[in-house]
């Protein structure tokens, strides 16, 4: 299982924003510089985050983006969903009769990967942006 860069960068950028007061707009340029993420790539990511109501844009000379909700109310699973990341450990569909190996039966290890898939998705469902900030504070 591997998360794509769009998902990882979305989480990084939103965690960066979470360090600031929720009603203070943060520019993508500043996030780009602090997190070493391409500004053009951030713009693509934030279009999806805005469309999925995770952030909103603020116009003007002090404009940028703000979180639409408190960081403790934004789950990592929501962020992944907003940028079209599906966290999967198996190649086949959960309810499919066929296995990921293309045969009519599922492989001998299918249940193991299916269980891991559930565990990983529950992990991301139970983690939010404020958890990331608390983890960093504990390490410092």
- Please give the alpha-carbon distance between the first and last residues: 29 Å
Unreliable spans are: none
Q: Helicity range of the residues? A: 40-55%
Total individual domains: 1
Order of helices and strands: HHHEEHHH
Strand order of the largest sheet: 1-2
What does the overall shape look like?
Answer: elongated
Produce the secondary structure layout:
Layout: H1 5-18, H2 28-35, H3 39-51, E1 55-58, E2 64-67, H4 76-82, H5 110-125, H6 129-139
Helix pairs in contact: 1-2, 1-3, 1-6
Descriptive notes:
With 140 residues, the chain is mainly alpha-helical. The protein has a single domain, classed as Arc Repressor Mutant, subunit A (Orthogonal Bundle), CATH 1.10.10. The protein has 6 helices and 2 strands, in the order H-H-H-E-E-H-H-H. Helix 1 packs across helix 2 (28-35), helix 1 (5-18) packs across helix 3 and helix 1 crosses helix 6 (129-139).
How would you describe this structure in keywords?
mainly alpha; elongated; 140 residues; Arc Repressor Mutant, subunit A; two-stranded antiparallel sheet
Compact summary:
It is built from six helices and two strands.
